[in-house]
DNA sequence: TGCCGAAATTGATCTGTATCAAGTTTTTTC
DNA sequence: GAAAAAACTTGATACAGATCAATTTCGGCA
């Protein structure tokens, strides 16, 4: 499937645009290719773009006392970037780096805001999209607070086994809030 | 200030409604009084309402192995309820209980959705409101992951000293992800 | 105002996970 | 395709914060 078609299907899951509106809306999205280890945004910058991931994996992380803490990952079909920085138009607390080569589509903040002004469908899509992100964050928040390192590992391994292949272990470890050593031991124990 | 006026000012901070629209919008909100220790929602129920807190303090918590884990607190001027359950219209993973007597305004899910359909201003308010909640959650997520128990206590004490008075310590302790004993020791050390 | 149950404090001990260190394996690069 | 760098594993030790237990203090209410 073509990259614009992929975005279309994804957006239409939440809101069906009129064809005229959609043509206009999609015209503001631009394809971007980035290579493994390149960044779409670095800590301290303000996020100018909102990204759709057509192919690839990205990792978000912040730094604390020189160490990296992985915040999350995005895959094919996800949206990416420092979304809170984008929304607030404030400097980001984290960086977003490609773990594999990526094909992305992006729209600028100004263009997206213009779309929100212009079309009620876009406004609605924005609201529901935010709601869905929020629901996911709430779920993850509860997850982190309710489970021990071992339990979190176990849940990741059973619920998202593909991640174990895609993402280097040291990133997964810090995502789960443990050291690579602990991660390695839990994996062995399994 | 009057309870409806308080909500009006709060909503208008994000979006200025037309007067006609506002009159219609506000007519769907109903005042609710609840007493200390009463619940607005219990774990397992689906949240039917979205609340505005005019006066009072509420606590959200989930249960794990019989122990309560406090998720968050809402105060005068906040919105409350199990918002993720409300948005998804799925059973809530946590309960929301009054810590003091509370005066609230609430609107039902059906009525709010009808307002979103009817007015672009409402839709926009919904989008921006969700964005703000999301930004707050992202900040807190980073907070929990980047700091030790002692650092989290210190930050709470300096950034929100009023909470230390308003909320019983055992709730704050579990909110910060530590036992009441640890909380007590950190407080003493200060 | 005084009583009772809940909340907070304090001390002693335990434990899961971090840290440090030394290999081994995998990936990158030239 | 060999050398260098990075990632992962494994073992030994350290420690922050949990748990358990015994008082003390506080808050609600008769």
From TrEMBL, chains A, B:
Q: Boundaries of each Cyclic nucleotide-binding domain copy?
A: 13-116
Gene Ontology, cellular component aspect: cytosol
Record's Pfam families?
cNMP_binding
Return one GO MF term. Answer: DNA-binding transcription factor activity
InterPro entries attached to this UniProt entry: cNMP-bd_dom, cNMP-bd_dom_sf, Env_Response_Regulators, RmlC-like_jellyroll
Gene3D superfamilies with a match to the protein in the record = Jelly Rolls
Q: Which SMART domains match?
A: cNMP
The family database entries (CDD domains) matched by this protein are listed as: CAP_ED
Know the name of this protein? cAMP-binding protein
Source organism (scientific name): Fulvivirga imtechensis AK7
